[in-house]
Design a protein that fits this description.
The protein is an alpha/beta fold. It has a single domain, classed as Ribokinase (UDP-N-acetylmuramoyl-L-alanine:D-glutamate ligase). The protein is about 35% helix and about 20% strand. It has eight helices and ten strands. Strands 2-1-5-6-7-8-9-10 form an eight-stranded mixed β-sheet, sandwiched between helices. A two-stranded antiparallel sheet has the order 3-4. A hairpin with a 2-residue loop joins strand 3 and strand 4. Helix 1 packs parallel to helix 7. The longest helix has 19 residues.
């Protein structure tokens, strides 16, 4: 019997954010906060801050795959978080790499648009992300991303979110954690759909909404935290139960962090600042 993993080794695949609130820097902060060891493969260099995304420079596909192989050839990977891929050719190449390497606990944050509104994926890449979902173990869309993944209009209420999350799960077999922080009806429930064998379970997971404009990097942070917490956990529900209190604290802490003049970041290390 293998020894239990003491420190989860989590590989994050994403773009950069020089302001530190999203992308790989948010990923590494979230992994570290949840007790993991973060590794990072750069897919794109962005020009952005808390006020917007001004430019995106894609890293060549061959270079991205070379980074992935360099890590996998040397380090045991316990979980993978996938964020910004940006280009359809990169989505396809990362999918091929995942099939070849088959790492455990793959989490996909289907990044299409930044919190500040900037596009982070071409239309073709956004469409290709739907083909990547069956390869991963968990996908963590927000409300608009969920609609794209199932080919429907954006849901307007929690019942619509439940239906769309169940549809994505049925179509792909991947567990779905649909986040509802941007749902206009004010719902404060995330939706988790997962299966054990042939039995599907849909859970509506209530949380206390934090009234904050500082949500830069929330999707990146949540998905990285989920990948880390899943190592050693029995299921995605158990991982979420650990991640949600940390996420709430990070959102609350962001109110007093004082970074940037726009939609600021979370305080990933809020528990050190109390």
């Amino acid at each position: 019997m293998a020894d239990p993993v003491r420190v989860p080794r989590v590989l994050c695949i994403a773009g950069t954010d020089p302001s530190g609130g999203a992308g790989l820097l948010a990923d590494t902060k979230a992994v570290t906060a949840l007790g993991g060891y973060a590794m990072g493969v750069v897919t794109a260099v962005t020009v952005q801050n808390t006020r917007g995304v001004y430019d995106v420079h894609a890293v060549p596909v061959d270079t991205v795959i070379a980074q992935l192989d360099a890590v996998a050839d040397d380090v045991q990977i316990d979980a993978v978080k996938i964020g910004m891929l940006g280009e359809a050719t990169l989505v396809r190449a990362v999918g091929d790499w995942l099939r070849r390497r088959r790492p455990p606990h793959i989490v996909l944050d289907p990044v299409m648009v930044a919190t500040t509104g900037g596009r982070l994926a071409t239309d073709e890449a956004a469409s290709m992300l739907r083909e990547l979902v069956p390869i991963v173990d968990l996908v963590t869309p927000n409300v608009p991303e969920l609609g794209v993944l199932c080919g429907l209009d954006t849901a307007q209420d929690i019942e619509g979110i439940v239906g769309q999350a169940e549809l994505v799960h049925e179509q792909t077999g991947s567990a779905v954690l649909a986040t509802t922080g941007d749902l206009l009806d004010g719902s404060a429930e995330d939706v988790l759909v997962e299966s054990e064998g042939r039995r599907r379970t849909t859970r509506r997971l209530p949380f206390v909404r934090v009234d904050t404009p500082h949500t830069h990097g929330t999707g990146c942070s949540l998905s990285s935290a989920m990948a880390t917490a899943r190592v050693g956990a029995d299921d995605w529900r158990s991982a979420y139960a650990r991640v949600r209190p940390w996420m709430d604290g990070a959102l609350q802490g962001g109110l007093s962090l004082g970074v940037g003049q726009g939609s600021g970041p979370l305080d990933h290390n809020w528990f050190l600042h109390r």
